[in-house]
Amino acid sequence: MPEAMTAAVAETVDAFHYGRFHLVQPKGRGHRSGMDAMLLAALVADERPIRVADLGAGAGAAGMAVAARLPQAQAVLFERSPDMAAFARKSLALPENAALSGRVSVCEADVTLTGKARIEAGLTDDHFHHVIMNPPFNHAADRTTPDALKAEAHAMVDDLFESWIRTAGAILIPGGQLSLIARPESIADIIAACGRRFGGLEITALHPREGENAVRILVTAIKGSRARLAFRAPLVMHEAGTHRFSALVDDLNNGRAAYPRATPSAQPRKKS
Fold this sequence. Notes:
Layout: E1 3-7, E2 11-16, E3 21-26, H1 35-42, E4 50-55, H2 61-69, E5 73-79, H3 82-93, H4 98-101, E6 104-108, H5 115-120, E7 128-133, E8 138-139, H6 148-154, E9 155-156, H7 160-171, E10 172-182, H8 187-194, E11 198-207, E12 216-223, E13 230-231, E14 235-236, H9 247-253
Parallel strand pairs: 4-5, 4-7, 5-6, 7-10, 8-9, 11-13, 11-14
Antiparallel strand pairs: 1-2, 2-3, 10-12, 11-12
Helix pairs in contact: 1-2, 7-8
């Protein structure tokens, strides 16, 4: 989990992956990144030179985690909120992130844009090898926080997965990989949104402990694939009777391991 390093009036600088990168985050307001972002980043298991789009990146935790673990990865952090995009830019300006700053960039854009507006916003057709996303997971009716920044990050709309996955399908190269983390109740919306755009869905349920219900699902899919959906063995976060993470989950959370697809797809041809 992130370790608080310094604090300012309205922000903190938090160390991830045992200090391999640092993140400037809002203090006392907005969305603060943690394990969800790290598990999402772990779904990108690709040692080649790749381009990664982090949709709805917030302060940039997931995209930066990919770049920190994979030295040949370039990442673009797409974020609609000017406030959160500013935090991502502050993160990239930190001396501790010098190794990432040349490979990670920030783009203020609404990932639900379509057509010419989407392309003009920087979400270019057939460009990325990987798209990662951690969409807002609360239904709008459940939004009770007075914190507008947090509400925007956490509250979803009815067609959220359709619009976000539509954009992912447009900007990925053929054979590119979509990766996302969501709540289990979103599974039907995710499968429907993938439709004919993506195949070979692999879904992993994340359980707090043995015998407890899943709290998240990890999903990967391949653009243009016709492979069938597969449910993978569940991941259990904590050892029985403790709050200690299992060895694998701890490695995923701290950038020491990736969580590759069970059935690797044919690697897409690299585009220049």
